[in-house]
Amino acid sequence: MNPLSTLQQQEAAAQFEEDGYYIAPPVLSPELIKQANTHVDAVLAGIYETGIPPVTRSFAPGEGVGKLQKIDNAHISDETLQKVVAHPALGEWAAAVTGASKVQIFATQLLFKPPGGETGVNIGWHQDLEYWQNHLQGELFTAWLALSDVTEEAGPMRFIRGSHRWGLLNAGDFFSGDMQAIQSRIQDKSGNPWDEVSDILPPGGVSFHHKLTVHGSSANHSQAPRRSLAIHLLTEKAGLVEGADYRTAGYLSDFNDGRACPVIYQAK
Ligand SMILES: O=C(O)CCC(=O)C(=O)O
Description:
Shape: globular
Bound molecules: 2-oxoglutaric acid
CATH topology: Jelly Rolls
Order of helices and strands: HEHEEHHEEHEEHEEEEE
Number of strands: 12
CATH class: Mainly Beta
CATH architecture: Sandwich
Structural class: alpha+beta
């Protein structure tokens, strides 16, 4: 990939700061995405190339058909997924949106949203920091990489523009099916208008969102599964909450392990 121009970097950083998200041009090649999907299928089926199982998964292989499959740190189980999440092009954009000199992965989630159905396939409105606040602090954010065509019909992630300025509300719930109830709870707490933006991405496209940006997604009404990797990142301005024991912290428990948490950008 060509290095990003100063203008591209400035535009990305400005939008991230203003809106709490940034939708980048496609970053990964169709060939790599095709390969990645073959390896996603293997991990879903419980075939772990490295011999290391993912840190957690919502359903055992073969179970949870028709439900949202969430596999935490699938990249430790598979060399191709490792290559994808640590791709230097993602690192370049991640550094551009934050202005960071170092960007490192601290966890990933493989999300497989099957088509159809109204329950068990959405992701409730939430702020990511709700799930990290006991263990991590500072500059934390997420790269969300599309592995399939994420159209409006496919149940794309939706951001609430500007919500990264609302503070930590602790009113969300990733696992709730009742989007309307959570929206009301968040709006009651924040008192701000609700401006939804769909994160429409082609395969290989990536978006970035701030740790406080409210986001969620509805059911997949397209014909194909919605496939993605949420790659959670920290910069040189972030670290562990003092005294926090990350080893018992579910999907954060691989924190600082070399394979699970590669550095994907380092300024020269
Ligand atoms: O995949 C989605 O719709 C939401 C994912 C998410 O919550 C995240 O990337 O932080």
